[in-house]
């Protein structure tokens, strides 16, 4: 579906790289600091680990996108305390307070969390290790 959307938008194939596979197996093998945008659209049970990998993979000033971060409204429900809901809450909270990223949360639909890595003065990238994501 992503390939088709890019094709319909007339984005040249050489401008995007689509990598299929299980996130837990693919992400650790990818090159650090090599991507402008990383979409973390994987098993929600591992969302924190996948976002950490995403932050490692993007270039300074790059963006990590996390769709469905509101978990169908569960994140806003204080009674919900399952592992996935708790992980999403922790991710939103910690990234909003992190000096390593600028976070933006879209409340439309299932929600979209956008994390853009911060560049220090002089262009050096702030380490994504500054995130305390409940681990």
Question: Which helices and strands appear, and what pairs or packs with what?
Answer:
Layout: H1 2-8, H2 23-26, E1 35-39, H3 47-57, E2 58-67, H4 83-96, E3 101-106, E4 112-117
Parallel strand pairs: 1-2
Antiparallel strand pairs: 2-4, 3-4
Structural features, described:
By secondary structure, the protein is α+β, with helices and mostly antiparallel strands. The chain has one domain (21-130): Vaccinia Virus protein VP39 (Rossmann fold, 3-Layer(aba) Sandwich). Helix content is 27%, strand content 20%. It has four helices and four strands, in the order ααβαβαββ. Strands 1-2-4-3 form a four-stranded mixed β-sheet, with helices on one face. A hairpin with a 5-residue loop joins strand 3 and strand 4. The radius of gyration is 15 Å and the shape is globular. It starts with a helix and ends in an 18-residue tail after the last strand. Mean pLDDT is 85; it is low at 123-130.
The CATH class name reads Alpha Beta
Instruction: Could you tell me the CATH topology label.
Output: Rossmann fold
N-to-C CA distance: 33 Å
Number of domains: 1
The portion of residues forming beta strands comes to: 15-25%
Helix share bin = 25-40%
Number of strands: 4
The appropriate CATH architecture is 3-Layer(aba) Sandwich
Number of helices: 4
Name the average pLDDT.
85
CATH superfamily: Vaccinia Virus protein VP39
Rounded Rg: 15 Å
Order of helices and strands: HHEHEHEE
Tell me about the largest β-sheet.
Answer: 4 strands, mixed
């Amino acid at each position: 579906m992503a390939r088709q959307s890019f094709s319909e938008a007339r984005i040249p194939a050489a401008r995007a790289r689509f990598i299929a596979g299980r996130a837990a197996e693919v992400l650790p093998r990818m090159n650090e600091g090599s991507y402008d945008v990383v979409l973390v659209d994987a098993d929600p049970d591992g969302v924190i680990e996948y976002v950490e990998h995403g932050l490692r993979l993007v270039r300074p000033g790059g963006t990590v996108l996390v769709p469905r971060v509101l978990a169908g409204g569960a994140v806003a429900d204080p009674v919900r305390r399952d592992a996935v809901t708790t992980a999403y809450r922790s991710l939103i909270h910690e990234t909003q307070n992190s000096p390593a990223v600028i976070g933006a949360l879209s409340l439309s639909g299932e929600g979209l969390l956008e994390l853009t890595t911060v560049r220090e003065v002089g262009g050096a990238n702030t380490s994504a290790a500054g995130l305390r994501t409940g681990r």
